[in-house]
Amino acid sequence: MVKQTIQIFARVKPPVRKQQQGIYSIDEDEKLTSSLEIILPRDLADGFVNNKRESYNFKFQRIFDQDANQETIFENIAKPVAESVLAGYNGTIFAYGQTGSGKTFTITGGAERYSDRGIIPRTLSYIFEQLQKDSSKIYTTHISYLEIYNECGYDLLDPRHEASSLEDLPKVTILEDPEQNIHLRNLSLHQATTEEEALNLLFLGDTNRMIAETPMNQASTRSHCIFTIHLSSKEPGSATVRHAKLHLVDLAGSERVAKTGVGGQLLTEAKYINLSLHYLEQVIIALSEKHRSHIPYRNSMMTSVLRDSLGGNCMTTMIATLSLEKRNIDESISTCRFAQRVALIKNEAVLNEEIDPRLMIIRLQKEIQELKDELAIVTGERRTEALTEAELLQLEKLITSFLEDQDPESRLEVGADMRKIHHCFHHLKKLLNEKKILGNSIVSSESKDQDCQEPLKEEEYKKLRDILKQRDNEINILVNMLKKEKKKAQDALHSSSMDRSEFRRSQNSPFPPGNPEEGQRRLLSSASTQAQDFSTSGYRSSLLHNKTGMRGEMSLGRQEAFEIFKRDHADSITIDDNKQILKQRFSEAKALGESINEARRKIGISENMAVPSMPDLQEERLRSQLEEEKRRYKTMFTRLKALKVEIEHLQLLMDKAKVKLQKEFEAWWAEEASNLQVKPPAVNSLNHMKPFPQTSESQHDQSQFLFNKSGQVPQIPSPQCECQDLGVGSDMYARKILPSPCPSPRSQEQSRTSTPLGNSTPERPVSSVPLTGDSQTDSDILAFIKARQNILQKKCNNSSTQKVRGFHFYS
Ligand code: ADP
Ligand code: MG
Fold first, then answer.
1. What is the spatial distance between Cα 596 and Cα 334, in angstroms, rounded to a whole number?
2. Which of 9, 11, 12, 13 most suits a substitution to test ligand 1, by most atoms within 8 Å of the C-beta?
3. Ligand 2 centroid vs 7 CA: distance in angstroms?
4. 3: which strand partners?
5. Source organism's superkingdom (predicted)?
6. Would the annotation count 104 as a binding residue?
7. Which of 8, 20, 64, 105 is deepest in the core (most CB within 10 A)?
């Protein structure tokens, strides 16, 4: 049993640009603890937080300042917990802090760079690496991903997500068994045999969470997310199984309702916006007070799920995320206060071992048989019936393994059955006689053989050659996978509407072309992995396709609008950056693949040269050369594997960014469409249009929305605008837009000041220009045109001489 208080760490987030930074200092001098001093600015101290105190001191195990990177956080905070989980203890890491303080960044990671990946992906990577190294045990890993929103539990990995929305799925509920163990009904567990599969599950959960989020359901700030890695281990042949769980928790934002202070006094203790955080605090207060017999775990779902992590069988770590800008100082002080209480809680982690009932039954059956045999001997009962074929075969197997066992203490256990004992003696006698005959012939052949060293050497070479062949195959597979990855990246670069689903499938099928045998072998050996792949990445891609890949069904205008939306979106820079990095990684991997081939070739040459007839010295030199090449080869091979993981991760990031982009576009589009319906033919109804979310770079040139380089975007007829270049329109759109038949006084005024071009468009009656009749297509087209008009309008408004006359829209 390991007794330990909850470990508390603090992480200070870099300030948001243009925000005034608060004053704080970190003292690292003391052993094992660091202290954080926060200075409250006078204007805030005066009545906002507490009785004009100006300086606050908090102790933490360690404090990570703004410059601490994700690797440091993992190494110092998560790795020790992951190690104890591997040893069989439960572990929990939870991030606590106000919205925007970096909880998600710390737990899951940033969506932009590979180096920004957070605790979950790094821990998965570490755990799978360790599992691969340890061949003494059999491990199984399962993943679950739970979201708690408004006291309701949702399974983020429920495969039915694809078909229905989060709210329609069965809620995750808590069940308690007589031993007061918590079980979660409707929470799916997914086996992950590799890091890649586990990452796919993380991605899937995050995407489902993002898709479910609406302005009414601010999942990312109001919900708690618990990503759990379930690890079981067993030594081969043993009936004892160890289970350990690692919860990685991203809590809801800890901000509280506005506090009201009068005359410098804090009137009431501020309340959390999130009710379950309030219950969490109550549990923590109860645990930190001595002699409290009742701990109110049952009050909320979150405290029930995390019961073991809080004052129970678990090694728990809290990360207080702090945003120490001046305006956030009071929330940061609250977070630190909470952490100080958490630090008082003692946990007692024990190894969770249980006996596998199946193995136990086998063991007991054997014991019963032995006892029966013994009883038979003691009671003098003699068995006369002959041993069966199977029993004889079993006995001979036992004798063989007994003879092969090098341990002088080993015993031949056949039970107390005299028939078996007799048969063993018989069989041993037979073997001994055979050995004698064989031994004679061996001695005679040995005397003929001059050099008995040679076959050994030959054998060694053969072994090395076999290993080389094996590596060859591995490289072939990796190189082929890389080729496919590269092709995918190129496809992604050239075509954003690629059918990822199919592609993923082909990527996941690791068949090296032209080597069907190898492919088949891999197919057989990884049949289970394949099945998993279809349920994770296959599912992921189909989810991407179904939830966001509606572009195939989009009308032309909408597709075009999406292209522009995408280009002008702030995230497009990230996507482009990641594409660049991905490209770099591919070429790095390619170069590495070539170096590996070269190294392999050299190994081949050295081996072929190392014929037994060589003088010792030369052979020795060749041998060391060979060893050196092999070492180099191994290092490069490991690097290539790491690159593969990185490439996969980058692709996940890009997929995620695309989902986000599409989601934002759909939201924007829906809003525009509904605005159109709410405000039908109003003159100058463009003013309510929301512009695309844009980067500052794109804002300076909104005209690019109107004129893309290829000139494919149909232009809007804008006879009212003085900008000549805005006035050319495509028929397709022009026929759906009419100058207002009854312009408002303001628009009439405007038209008077407009250019002759403006007057050149004849005003036709509305009814003479029908729309397509398809309301969906029409509203799509209209929304698109309105978006353009909006920007056009802005452009014209910006210039004092340019005016836009109102349009009428009909649908
Ligand atoms: P929370 O989950 O607490 O609401 P986020 O993790 O979403 O906060 O962080 C808010 C923003 O700040 C994100 O854009 C994130 O990338 C950024 N951020 C947070 N912590 C850091 C950090 N340590 N370094 C760089 N950027 C950070
Ligand atoms: Mg968050």
1. 55
2. 13
3. 22
4. 348
5. Eukaryota
6. yes
7. 8
Ligand 1 site-directed mutation target among 16, 94, 103, 105, most atoms within 8 Å of CB:
105
Quote the pLDDT of residue 597.
81
Closest CA to 141 of 242, 235, 248: 242
> Any binding-site annotation on 514?
no
Q: Are 210 and 659 in contact (CB under 8 A)?
A: yes
Which parts of the chain have pLDDT scores under 70?
30-31, 42-53, 162-163, 166, 214-220, 258-270, 439-457, 473-474, 477-481, 485, 493-557, 605-615, 676-811
pTM of the model: 0.61
Contact 242, 353 (CB under 8 A): yes
What is the rounded distance in angstroms from the CA atom of residue 751 to the CA atom of residue 769?
22
Residues bordering ligand 2, an ion, CB closer than 5 Å: 103-104, 220
DSSP of 756-796: HHHHHSPP--GGGS---S-HHHHHHHHHHHHHHHHHHHHHH
Residue 275 CA to residue 303 CA, distance in Å, equals: 11
- pLDDT tens across 206-237, in order? 988 887 776 666 666 789 999 999 999 998 87
Q: Facing residues of 172 across strands? A: 153
Average pLDDT, the chain: 73
Q: Give residues (CB < 6 A) around ligand 1.
A: 13-14, 97, 99-105, 110, 253, 321
Q: Is 264 marked as binding a ligand?
A: no
Per the structure block, which two tokens stand in for 106?
């710390």
Closest residue CA from atom 11 of ligand 1: 100
357 burial via Cβ count (<10 Å: 0-12, 13-18, 19+): exposed
Phi then psi for residue 240, to 5 deg, are -90, 130
